[in-house]
Each structure stands twice: as structure tokens, then as C-alpha cells.
From TrEMBL:
Every DNA/pantothenate metabolism flavoprotein C-terminal domain range: 10-220
Catalytic activity: N-[(R)-4-phosphopantothenoyl]-L-cysteine + H(+) = (R)-4'-phosphopantetheine + CO2; (R)-4'-phosphopantothenate + L-cysteine + CTP = N-[(R)-4-phosphopantothenoyl]-L-cysteine + CMP + diphosphate + H(+)
Official protein name in the record: Coenzyme A biosynthesis bifunctional protein CoaBC
Residues of the full protein shown: 180 to 402 of 402
Single biological process term from Gene Ontology: coenzyme A biosynthetic process
Cofactor requirements of the protein: FMN; Mg(2+)
Residues annotated as binding CTP: 103, 113, 148, 163, 167
Molecular function GO terms recorded: FMN binding; metal ion binding; phosphopantothenate--cysteine ligase activity; phosphopantothenoylcysteine decarboxylase activity
GO cellular component terms listed in the entry, alphabetical order: phosphopantothenoylcysteine decarboxylase complex
E.C. numbers: 4.1.1.36, 6.3.2.5
Keywords: Decarboxylase, Flavoprotein, FMN, Ligase, Lyase, Magnesium, Metal-binding, Multifunctional enzyme
Role of this protein: Catalyzes two steps in the biosynthesis of coenzyme A. In the first step cysteine is conjugated to 4'-phosphopantothenate to form 4-phosphopantothenoylcysteine, in the latter compound is decarboxylated to form 4'-phosphopantotheine.
Source organism of the structure: Gloeobacter kilaueensis (strain ATCC BAA-2537 / CCAP 1431/1 / ULC 316 / JS1)
Superkingdom to which the source organism belongs: Bacteria
Cofactor binding, note field: Binds 1 FMN per subunit.
């Protein structure tokens, strides 16, 4: 393999990855979602598996193929993702939260299609649980928790640093999604890897698989 040089440095480790976007259905034909394709989560899971880890990937709806060496746990809603992630978290040494989780969901899912004329008045939104925060509260010392943040605007990095603290993360992979050629759905990605001790490390525009391997290379090194 190009980036591991055949290294199996994650042998004996268990990795949990969340990826893709969640869908919060309001009725049988409509949902609240986002443009995530699952590509970054799948790349991370693939890289970890190639490096010898047992990998669980909790993945929102995705069109992309997942290699058979990855344990795939398909989910649709944020609530399903949370249940599965909490279940798999306890045994995971390394946790990558690459999913784009919906921030709001309809209070209820209507069994019948809601007439569009009543959507404006009938649709009631509630906040979705923060899966990462939920996991962070039960994190043990031997676990490494890595979050992702897709930011926009000039102050994207400051916003990302605040997020790292607010979410009690060991690491945060932050990127700007308002630049062309990276972010949602793109094949390539570019990011800043921020650590909880204040370090930051720029990763240049590379394929998402290569990005995954570069992240793993950096996490290994004590910061
Ligand atoms: N995340 C999560 N559960 C949520 C929302 C976010 O686990 N309900 C995780 C994401 O997988 C990501 C990190 O939290 O690793 C940051 O997600 P982001 O959407 O950037 O942060 P939010 O706290 O939702 O803030 P905002 O959307 O307002 O920027
Ligand atoms: Ca969010």
C-alpha cells in the first residue's frame, strides 16, 4: 500500500468511525439532511483496516462502496447513529467522528405525507443530541477521540479551536468547506489538525484516503 508501506501499526486496536450524513424524516417522502457522501468516513475506516485495526464504521446513507474488511453498521437517523456509536464506543481505542449529523430533527415523523401548504405551520423542529459530547463524557484515558469540523468564513480556525474545547476532544480535524475542490463530496481534502494541547498541523490538499493515512501518522506521534 502506498501510504502505509505495508505497516500494520494499528494491529490489536479497535477503531470506531462515524461517517456520512444523517437523515431526519418529517414524513415518508421528506427529510432534513446535508450533502455528506460518507467519503471521508469510508476513507478513514479503510485506512485503519489496512493498518491492521478492527474497524467499525457507523455510516449514514451512502452510495459509495465500503471494503469488506470494515465492519459496516448502516444507519439513517441521528438517533440510530447515536445508539450504535454508544454501543461500539466502550471497546474502541481510537474514535473518529466524521459524520455530518443533522442539528435539528422534526419533533415527530408523520405517517402520512404532510400537505405542503401546512408544512410552514405543522413542522416543529427540535435539537438533535450531540453524539460526540455524549461519548466524550464517558471517555477513558486510553481512548483517543477525534472530531471533525466543516467551517466557513474568515474566522473558521478560531471557531474550530472553540469547538475542540467545547467538545472535550483530543484532536479536531478542521477544514474550510467554502473553498472550491474540497469538503463535501469532493475526492480531495485539505485540513488543519488541532490538538488539545494547542498544536496545529496543516495537511495539504490530498485524496481523502491519503488524508486518513496522514492523520493516523500524526496521531501516533506524541504531541
Ligand atoms: N457531532 C456529533 N453529533 C451531533 C453534531 C455533531 O457527533 N449532533 C460531531 C461531528 O461528527 C463532528 C463534530 O461533532 O465530529 C463537530 O460537528 P459540527 O457540526 O462542526 O459541530 P456542531 O457542534 O454541530 O456545531 P455547528 O453545526 O453549529 O457548527
Ligand atoms: Ca452541526
Amino acid at each position: 500500500l502506498l501510504w502505509t508501506g505495508g505497516r500494520r501499526d494499528l494491529a490489536g486496536k479497535t477503531v470506531l468511525v462515524t461517517g456520512g450524513g444523517t437523515r431526519e424524516f418529517l414524513d415518508p417522502v421528506r427529510f432534513i439532511g446535508n450533502p455528506s457522501t460518507g467519503r471521508m468516513g469510508i476513507a478513514l475506516a479503510t485506512a485503519c483496516a489496512h493498518r491492521g485495526a478492527l474497524v467499525h464504521l457507523v455510516l449514514g446513507p451512502s452510495e459509495l462502496p465500503v471494503p469488506p474488511e470494515v465492519q459496516l453498521w448502516p444507519v439513517t437517523s441521528a438517533r440510530q447513529m447515536e445508539q450504535r456509536a454508544v454501543e461500539l464506543f466502550a471497546g474502541a481505542h481510537l474514535i473518529f467522528m466524521a459524520a455530518a449529523v443533522a442539528d435539528v430533527r422534526p419533533r415527530t415523523k408523520s405517517p402520512d405525507k404532510i400537505p405542503k401548504a401546512s408544512l410552514g405551520t405543522q413542522l416543529e423542529l427540535v435539537a438533535v443530541d450531540d453524539i460526540l459530547l455524549h461519548l466524550a463524557h464517558s471517555k477513558q484515558d486510553w481512548q483517543t477521540l477525534v472530531g471533525f469540523a466543516a467551517q466557513t468564513g474568515e474566522d473558521w480556525l478560531t471557531a474550530a479551536r472553540h469547538k475542540l474545547e467545547r467538545k472535550h476532544l483530543d484532536w479536531l480535524v478542521a477544514n474550510r468547506v467554502d473553498e472550491p475542490g474540497q469538503g463535501f463530496g469532493s475526492r480531495d481534502n485539505q485540513a488543519m489538525l488541532l490538538s488539545n494541547c494547542g498544536h496545529s498541523d496543516a495537511i495539504p490538499l490530498v485524496s481523502k484516503l491519503e488524508m486518513a493515512h496522514r492523520l493516523l501518522d500524526r496521531l501516533e506521534k506524541p504531541s
